[in-house]
Each structure stands twice: as C-alpha cells, then as structure tokens.
Amino acid sequence: MAGGISLKELAAELKLAPSTVSRALNDSYEISEATKKKVISMAEKLNYHANPFARSLRENKSKTIAVIIPERINSFFAQVVDGIEEIAQEQGYHLLIYNTHEDLEREQKIVNLLLNGRADAIAMSVTSQTSDVSHLQKLHDRGLPVIFFDRIRSEIPTTKFITNDYESAFEATKHLIQQGCKNITLLTLGKDLSISKERQRGYNDAIKSEGWELDPSMTLYCSHEEERNVELIEELLLSSNRPDGILASVEKLAFATYLAVKRTKLRIPSDLKLISFSNTSIAGILNPSLTTITQPAMSIGNECANLLIKKLTKPKQYELIDQVITIPSKLTIRESTLVE
Amino acid sequence: MAGGISLKELAAELKLAPSTVSRALNDSYEISEATKKKVISMAEKLNYHANPFARSLRENKSKTIAVIIPERINSFFAQVVDGIEEIAQEQGYHLLIYNTHEDLEREQKIVNLLLNGRADAIAMSVTSQTSDVSHLQKLHDRGLPVIFFDRIRSEIPTTKFITNDYESAFEATKHLIQQGCKNITLLTLGKDLSISKERQRGYNDAIKSEGWELDPSMTLYCSHEEERNVELIEELLLSSNRPDGILASVEKLAFATYLAVKRTKLRIPSDLKLISFSNTSIAGILNPSLTTITQPAMSIGNECANLLIKKLTKPKQYELIDQVITIPSKLTIRESTLVE
DNA sequence: CAATATTTCGAAATCGATTCCGCATTTTCT
DNA sequence: AGAAAATGCGGAATCGATTTCGAAATATTG
Average model confidence (pLDDT) for chain A? Predict the structure, then answer.
C-alpha cells in the first residue's frame, strides 16, 4: 500500500460516479469541460495515479516491452538497448530487461516467464548456446509479438534486424588482405549463431576470392571465459603457422587478442593486423587504435522499438512479416591494420 | 490477447471451482494431493499461466524492481545492474530499467511514472544535474522503498550504498604524489554530485597533507559531451602550469584524457600520470595500461537487491534505515602511473 | 453410535480501472 | 409544440487471481 487513492475514492471526494471520473481523466467526449476540469484538478490535488495493474488487467496490455540480451557489459547491446529505450520512452513504454549471460537455460527460463503476458512484446538477441528453439517457438505461437536483432533465429517467422554481417566480414577480410596479410584467422563464437555463420561466410568467400585455399583450422571457436580465450589466442600466436591477420567477430575477442599479444613478443600491426566487429567508443584510444566494423546499434534499437510499438498500436495494420532487415555497418580504419 | 486460458477456464475444464484451482496451484494445505496433481497436470497440458496483472492487482505488488541509472554505456553501472539482476532473478523479481542520460528532466519524468506503483521498489543513482530533490522526496513520502547507490542524496532518509569515495580519492592522489607528481588535477563532474564532493574532499586532503596549497583551478569540472571534455583537457595540458598527474573521478574522463593526450606531444606516464575511478575490463589493454580504482560494482548491486527484496518480503522486520553503507574500492596499479 | 474434528472444496467478495447500457435533461428540428 | 437527437452522467459488469467464510464430506473420538 504505497499510499495513493483509488479512482473510487477520488470519485467519492468529487461526489461523482467512478465511471464519470474515469472518463473525465481519459478525456472522453461525453464529459463536460467543467466536470473534466474539476476532476483533473482534484486528481492533482489528491495526487491520484491510476493503478497500472488494474488498467493492464482490464485492457490486456501493459505498455511494457521486454528486452533480452546475452550480455550487458558489451557496447553493442548497451547501445541497442539505449536505442530501444529512446523510442519506448517517447511512446510511454516501459522496458523489462533481462541478461541471459550467454546461458541457454537462463534464456529458456526468462522466455517462459514472459509467456504469461507480463510484457506486450519482446525484442531479443539469442544466446550463442541457443540450439533448440522450442522455447522461442512457444512464444511466437502464443501470439506474442517477438522480434530478433543481431543474433537471430530464422526458424521463427518474424521480423529480424541485423547488420550486413556477410558483407562486413568480407570487406574486413579483404581489408586485411589488402594490407598484406597472407594468413588470416577468424575468431568467432558458437557455430549455431546466426552472426557467426554469416561472418564466417564473408570471411570464407573473401579468402576464396583470392584463390586461396580455405583452412578450417584458421577459424578459432572461442568460449565465454575471458581467460580461456586469451590462452587460446596466445597458443594460436605461438603456433608454427601463426596468423598475420585476425578478424574478431565480436568485440571481446579483440580485447582478448590485445591481451594475448601482450604475452608474446609480437606487435600490432607489424606482426599481426587486427580488425574487429565492435562498437566500443574507445577503439581510438587503444594502442594501437583498433580498426573496427561499427554496427548501427542505435538504429537497430530504434527500428526494433518502432516496429514493435507500431504492431502493438495498430495490430491489424502492421504485421511482423518473416523478413530480415539489414542495416549496414561502417568500417573505420585505424592503426591496428596499418602497413608500417 | 496473447492466447492463454484463465483460471476460470482451467477450473471449468477440471470441473472444479476457481478457488480450488487457485489453491491447488499455490500448493495450499487445504487441497488434497490427488486434486493438486490433477490440477497441475491439467494446467501444464493446457499451458496455463497466471495473469500477472490480476495477481498484482490483488496482492498489490508486482515482483518488479525499477533501476534508474544515469548512463548505460558505463561499465560501473552495467555491472551494478548485473549485480542487481543476479539477486533479482534468483528471487523471481523482474527489472524495469531506465536511463536518465544524465538529464534531470528525464529523471523527474521517470520518477513520477513510478509513483503509480508499477514497481515495488526502486534502486537508483541520480543524475549529475540533480539539484532539486522534490521528486525523490515524493517517492519516499509515498512509502515506496527507495535506495540509492553510488550517486546518492543524503536528503532522502533511506539506505544508500557507496564505495569509500573519500579514502579512495585520497589514496589515489597520494599514489600520484608518491610517483613524483607535483601538480595534480582532479577531473570531475557536477558540483552537486555526492561522489564529486567526496572525491574532491579526498583529493583536497591529500594535497593539503603534503603541506601544499590547494589550487581551485586544478579542479576541472567536465561536461557530458565527450568532445567538449577532450577539448577542455587538451587545453589544460597545453596551459602554462599543466598538470603532471591527473585523477579522473569517472571512467569516461580518463578516456577523454587519453584522447586529449594523443593530440599533444605529451606521453603517459613520463609527462603525465593518470589514475581513474573505473570498472572497465580493458584497463589492462590500454596503452599504457590504466591505473584504476575499481569500485565493487557487482557487490553494490547485490546488496541493493538483497536489501530491497528483504524489505519487500518482510516489511516489518527490515527497515531502510537512513544510513550510508560503504563497500571499499580496490586500487590496481598499472603503467599509467609508473615512474620510468 | 452419536458427537466432534478434520479434510476438502465452493460461493462470493475483492483489488481498481474501464466500458456497455441506460436514464434523465437539454437542445434542435420540423 | 411535439418529436428527435444530443449531452452528461450513473449503475453495474468485467478483466483474472486470491481469499474469507462456510458448508459438505469424511475421519476420529469417547
């Protein structure tokens, strides 16, 4: 009972029926201006605030969007959420945010929780461990508007927002080649991950476009343990056919690479050139500064929120068509891929 | 209408009264095991999920905690939220998260929205612009459990979690002095901010403890525009009595310093030593690596969530006493403050 | 065996806002 | 002026789950 009066009490105070007060507050045409003014001023005076649960129960909607991300300490996801929140706040929506920590089980639990309708819609990016999608299917079957961003699952027929992963990875690899790399390693995450697959394809095609042979051992699948990744990369750098170029498919693998390089006698970019998908604002102050493929995180967030809210506001008019919408990334060349 | 049956429909299917079904699902002692089993299995079969709004309306609680932070792309706040979420998830609580973007007006709007009880409790860190606290006072007056972390307001009589800002700033300044700095600048944020004041005190006392005179012009108040800060710092570094040591009271000011230094001919740490309050995981891969005061972000988040949930669960037993709980930070010395 | 407990369950009220339906007044039109 | 329409508002049902208050049905006890 966090203080606060109900509509009924407010109505009693005004000697009006609750229905009248409700209509007055909702600016209904059937209430006279005089009454509306009286009601509104009394509501302010008594500090009346409508109970959101009563309203949600009645209207069967909560003005809440759930956002599920695999990690919070990641500039890309943080920016996407900022992008979603920007639109949501404008439109009076609230954000329930969940972090799966790249854990499929947590993802399943969270998704199951959302099955009860606590949120009107969901925007999510799946875990790198997400192989089974039955929990996502259930969500969609329930009729809950769900959209995916970045890490998507094509099995679920809905709208997805991604960046041009294939082209960006292709371009990034090509860039490394142009800068003289002959032996390029791709650092990536789970094999089931949409972005992994696409970025891998881009990398593969870039390699093949040079007439080079594709060496599967040059793709390094990393884990989610920071230290383990550093070890893996260090090992790679100390191996006989160590790479002279690395494409990191996510930011943290680039950071791990910096750490691994520190443990060796190698230097970036003379011994090893590095490029990474990353949205960190400090790419420029790393030393050497990091060449990045910057994803349009904010735009992706904006688009997700816009589409979901349109769908919620005008359900008949907007459909979450089964399509993938691509917003291109931007390559920013910095010192880590310079030819010295 | 996101598919899904109601308790009444479930009851009808079972030829039982809604009350019985409700009790069965809530494992009430007055329901026989046989009935419970029947109910539960039917509930699963029909994919029944309790409507959270009906429940919230009835119970007058939402199992939701609101978290308000001034910025999302900040490793400290991201970690605090992770810390809060960790406990919240365990206890079945949901998180509504709001970003004020350091804007007082937004903070007021959000706080006013929360006045309606959408969340059972609030954990927040105020904006650096927050001078007037009447909106926060209103929250507290309503009886809504509110606690502050990091950036607190002592005017509101509730529990606050911070780190040892004074001691850490003192220690950091002393460290710079020990490393040979004679002219130390403090980079800080809004004058009204609790952490600014405390860190300033720590800095001041460290300077005075050397018998040095305190030069007000050596405290630089920064803004929230990245580029503007870089310009301010660059200007500082080019001035006649440029500092040979900098204590950045927040992470982004350290980053701005790296950028500013890049624009000059100065070098860290030979010309300028730098230490910063920061929780970034990549302090180690900056070049030179950054000496940091790492705040116990995760613990702060954990404590906030624990206390709030205890207060929500056993309101009589736990009070949000007007006190400040301090969890110490940790100094990690890296290259940016090394004597060469 | 009667009387008392105990177990198990149902009917109905409740939380607070919205809305369908209906009833007075008042205004407008022919 | 009488009928039709518009205006302004109240009563009560509704959303879905919980819970109070009882009432059966069964079990226990003297």
Answer: 96
